[in-house]
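Sequence of Prolamin-like domain-containing protein (Cardamine amara subsp. amara).
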Amino acid sequence: MTKLNTQITILFVVLAFACAFVPAFSVEESEAKSLWDTCVVKITPKCALDIIAVVFGNATISDSCCHELVQEGKVCHDTLIKYIADRPTLIAQETQYLKTRDDLWNHCVSISTTA
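Predicted 3D structure, token representation.
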């Protein structure tokens, strides 16, 4: 099961990077670069992978990654997950992913406020 989760995580990371840098898939190259420069650099790569695995897979997130996510900010979190969920291969389940995104945000905020 761990191997499957790892493979899913790697798939989504590769997909996210491909979509961000391949003009045929990205909404606008400048928008992808802006997201990268202002949002993704605020969290560690491990936490970014964990967040993607939670939203698009069936993983759990550590308290420390929750703190990073909250520091990244809701606008960045919402925008990045929406950006990935808008891919043609994922769009059919976009509503589910956006709900999971919001649930993850609420969970992380509750952890961050109690710590």
